[in-house]
Amino acid sequence: MPLFKSLRNHHNYLTMRKQYLSTLAKTLKKSAIQQALEKSVDTDIISFSLGMPDTGILPLTEYKNAFQSINSPSILQYSSPLFSLKIHIANLMKERQIKCKPEQILLTSGAQQAMTLICKLLIDKGDSVIIEEISYPGFIQIAKSAHANLISTPVDYKNGIITEQLKKLLMKNKTPKLLYTIPEGHNPSGISLSNEKRLEIVNIASSWQLPIVEDDAYGFINYGKINPPLYSYSSGLVFYIGSFSKILSPAARLGWIIAPEYLIQKLEILKEGMDINTSTLSQYIINNYLNQGCLNEHLEFLKNHYKKKRDIMVEAIKHYIPEMDFSIPNSGFFIWGRLPDINTNKLFVQALENNKVSFLPGSAFGVKHNSSLATCLRLSFALCDINMIEIGIKRLKQALKEYKTRS
Q1: How many CB atoms are located within 10 Å of the residue 126 CB?
Q2: Residue 225, burial from CB neighbour count under 10 angstroms (0-12, 13-18, 19+)
Q3: Full-model pTM
Q4: Cβ 250 vs Cβ 217: under 8 Å
Q5: At how many degrees (to 10) do helices 137-145 and 32-39 cross?
Q6: CA triplet 133, 136, 141: central angle to 5 degrees?
C-alpha cells in the first residue's frame, strides 16, 4: 500500500474514532491516582501517593490455604452469591456495631462497583448529588458518568462536614438524590467524625429524607476509640459500603452493600447487567479465609502495623517540615496537610522528577476548582516500606527547599 494511502487511512481512522466517542468520553482524562499508579512501578520513587495496603503484610499464606480448600470445578463457574460469605460479613459487621441480616447484603466487585450500582439505582441525568468539597475521586468520576449535578458542601479540614452549611445547601436544593460521605478515616482528609457530628448529619438527612451513601473502606483500620457508622443510627436511610480491599487484598475485588432487602433486590438486577456476578473464585477464597477464624487477629495486627507507620510519618513531618499544618488521623491511611504559600501541583512535579518522592496534590480531590486546595496535599503512609518513610519525608523537605529557592 502506498505510504500516502496508509497515512490517509490512519487519519480517517483517527477522525472516526473521535467522531463516535460519547460526549462524556471526549472529556475523560486520567486521574491523578491513575497516573500515580503508573509511576509506582518506578522502584526509585518513594510513594506517598496511593491508598494501597502494605504489600509486605498481605495474608499470602492464609490465601494459599484458602485456595487449597477449593475442591470443585463449579467454583470456576458463574454462580449466585455465596450465602455463607454473607453470613460471615453480617457477623463481621457486628464489630462495627451494625446489625443486619445476610439478605440485606449485596456482594459486589469491590467498593467502586458498589458506588456505581447505588448511583444507577438513585440518579437520573441532571439529578443533584451532595458531596464534600474534598472527596474520593473515584466517586466523583462515577457521579459525573451518571450525569449528576455535583454540589459540594463546605468542610472543616479537621472536623469534617460543616453541618450548618449542609442545611443551607439543602434549603437551596431541596431535591438532591443522595449525600456521599466517608465518616471514618476520610479519603483524603483522614478525618473521623465525632459522634455528635454523625448524629447531626443523620438527623439533617432524616429531616430532608436524603439518602446517605456511607463509604466505610477504612472503618476496620483504626488507632483508638471509634464511633459507630452512620448506618447504625439510621438503617433505613443509609447505604453502607464495605470492602475487603484494605483489610485483606485489593486484587480479590470484593465488597458489599448493606441496604433494605427490597433495594438489594433492585441492586441485584442492576448488577447482573453490569458483570453477571461477583467472581465466584474470589467469593470462595475469601469465604475459606474467613472459615480459618484468623481475621480478628489479622485486623489487630493491621492496626498496630499501620499505627507505627502513621506515628513515624507524623514525627518525621514535625521534625523536617514543621511549617506543615496537619491533623493526626484516628483511622485509615492518610495525612492531609497544608503548606502556606506553596503550590502543591508544582511541588508535586518537582518532588517526583528531581527528588524521587511522590504525594497527591490537594487539587486531585476537589469537586470543582477551589483555590484553597492549591496549598494542600495528601500523604499516604500505608504502602511505603516502614523503613523508607522518614527518608521520603526528608526528600520532600529537600523538594520544598528547592521549590522555594526557584520561586
Answers
A1: 9
A2: exposed
A3: 0.92
A4: no
A5: 130
A6: 95
Tell me the per-residue pLDDT of 249-258, one tens digit each, with 9 for 90 and over.
999 999 999 9
Cell of 20: 463516535
DSSP single-letter state for residue 241: E
DSSP state of 223: S
SS3 275: helix
Sequence-ordered list of residues with C-beta below 8 angstroms from that of 88, at least 6 positions apart, any chain? 287, 290
Instruction: Give the CATH number of domain 25-58+297-406; options: 3.40.50.700, 3.40.50.920, 3.90.1150.10, 3.40.190.10.
Output: 3.90.1150.10
| 311-319 contacts, C-beta under 8 A, 24 or more apart | 312/381, 312/386, 312/389, 312/390, 313/379, 313/381, 313/389, 313/393, 316/389, 316/390, 316/393, 316/394, 317/379, 317/393
Parse the chain into domains and list their residue ranges. Answer: 25-58+297-406, 60-291
Cβ–Cβ < 8 Å for 119, 269: no
Give residue 311's identity as a one-letter amino acid code. Answer: D
Written as one letter, the residue type at 77 is Q
What pLDDT does 256 receive?
Answer: 98
Q: Which whole number is the average pLDDT over 394-405?
A: 96
